[in-house]
Design brief:
mainly beta, two-stranded antiparallel ribbon, Jelly Rolls, 131 residues, globular
C-alpha cells in the first residue's frame, strides 16, 4: 500500500494534508504530507506503507523520537522546533533503527534523499500550508 492509498484513514484525516516548503531556498519538500497528530496516528506512522513517493511525507506532532522497526523503505527524518526550524536531519534512515532529538517538538518524515535533493539543512525554517 502506497502513501496515497490509505483505506484505514477516515475521510477527515485524508483531508488534512500539507505542502511543506523550505523558506530559505523556496524548495518544496512535500506537496501531499499527512499529519499524525493523534496517539493512534503517531503510533502507526508509516509502518503500514510499502513506499513513500516524492511529494509525500508525514508530519508527526508532537514527537521527539522515531523508529524504523518494521519499515519497508528508508526515509529522511527532519526534527523541528515549535517554530518549524530544523534542529537535526537524519538522512536515509533504514529499517531497524532508532533516532531522536530531545529538543524537537515535531518530526517530518520524507522519502530518502529528499533533504539532500532540495539542499535542506539544519537551521532552515519550513513553511506548512494546508492543501
Amino acid at each position: 500500500m502506497g502513501f496515497r492509498e490509505l483505506p484505514q484513514e477516515t475521510a477527515a484525516a485524508v483531508e488534512k494534508r500539507l505542502r511543506v516548503t523550505n523558506r530559505r531556498s523556496g524548495s518544496q519538500l512535500a506537496s501531499f504530507a499527512g499529519i499524525a497528530n493523534t496517539s493512534e496516528l503517531r503510533r502507526r506512522g508509516l509502518l503500514k506503507h510499502s513506499s513513500l513517493e516524492e511529494g509525500d511525507g508525514l508530519w508527526i506532532a508532537p514527537c521527539e523520537a522515531v523508529h524504523s522497526f518494521g519499515m519497508k523503505f528508508a526515509i529522511d527524518v527532519l526534527y523541528l522546533n515549535k517554530q518549524k526550524k530544523i534542529l537535526k536531519i537524519r538522512p536515509n534512515m533504514v529499517k531497524s533503527r532508532i533516532s531522536l532529538c530531545l529538543r524537537a517538538h515535531s518530526v517530518l518524515e520524507l522519502p530518502a534523499g529528499m533533504a539532500a535533493k532540495t539542499g535542506t539543512q539544519v537551521g532552515d525554517e519550513l513553511e506548512f500550508e494546508k492543501v
